[in-house]
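SAMPLE LOG
Freezer: B-3
Tube label: C17
Construct: single chain, 385 aa
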Amino acid sequence: MNPVFSALSLAAIPLEDEALRAPVRAFLQDYLGDMPPEVRARSWMGFDADFSRALAKQGWIGLTLPKAYGGAGRSSFARFVLLEELLACGAPVTAHWIADRQSAPLLLRFGSEAQRQLLVPRIVRGEAFVCIGMSEPDTGSDLASVRTRAVPNDKGWLLNGRKIWTTNAHRSHYMVALVRTSGAPEDRHKGLSQVLIDLSLPGITVRPIADIAGDSHFCEVLFEDVQLPPDALIGEEGDGWKQVNAELAFERSGPERIYSSIVLAEQWLEALRAAPTKPPAAVAIAGRMAGRLAVLRAMSLAVASKLNQGERPELEAALVKDLGTEFEQRVPQWIAEGIDAMDAPASHALMRTLAYVMQLNPSYSLRGGTRQILRGIIARGLGLR
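STRUCTURE (predicted):
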């Protein structure tokens, strides 16, 4: 058996964690009300700071983080249940999403105690939002070619450079950035470090980038002689490559990598259920989606199980993310075919939702690492390169 698949053992959500589903679902139904599906289809790209703070009051941000920092200290299965419910209804979670998913765990693993005390409790309360500075202009997905540089001086670190495709930089309080602290881009992984940047500091310019759907999730961020304090460094100098790969594993391991198109899928399935006749072609498409989703969910649960056991399933997370991205991008194509196969005309809400997801879904295979990068990770993990 392939070693990756043999490592992904079937897992079930414990009853105490499954019990979280009902109160989360009730909260979401009450809070979101009649939000139209084309808005909910933004899924985890929808920004609503008030919603994030309301979620925090329920104790549902930092669900797996230690109680000493304000978290709930619960299992990865509890977080899986929470994320499934948030994604299924298209809750606008992006304000706190990155900080909860990867920045807080990164600081808990590599950061100083001062950094943890500064930020983690505020993340849990929905008071601090964090963006990630990885990609740079003209480097594509090649993170090792980072040119943004932090030079040590008598006040700490002097930062110059640019980041791009930084989600919600214009709405965030802090950035965790991968920068070069020694050497040159030709040195690749050597000399890379991570720094914590207060985005209110002088010398920082944030430029939102409008996408084809009219949203402005992504930003370009410019740093011009930004003075960082000495304690801005996260972890050890030069350990940035190791740290950023651990951070990306957090990013790739969640069920959001299979549910980005789920609001659209549910809208179409509702239309199919209500239709007086069920064309065989449409039923076949529904079965195809259900079958693929069931397998991907089982794989994602297996990754959650590994996280719960304290393991670091970086290879398995990359595999699920790659397969999940393929599924997410195919869903709107299948639904377009399913709408054509049905006898009754589709509702305006369904067509608006389909149009939005069709515009957005090319980005699914870019965020969290392109498919080429992920397949390189998988190939190395299998000993094929």
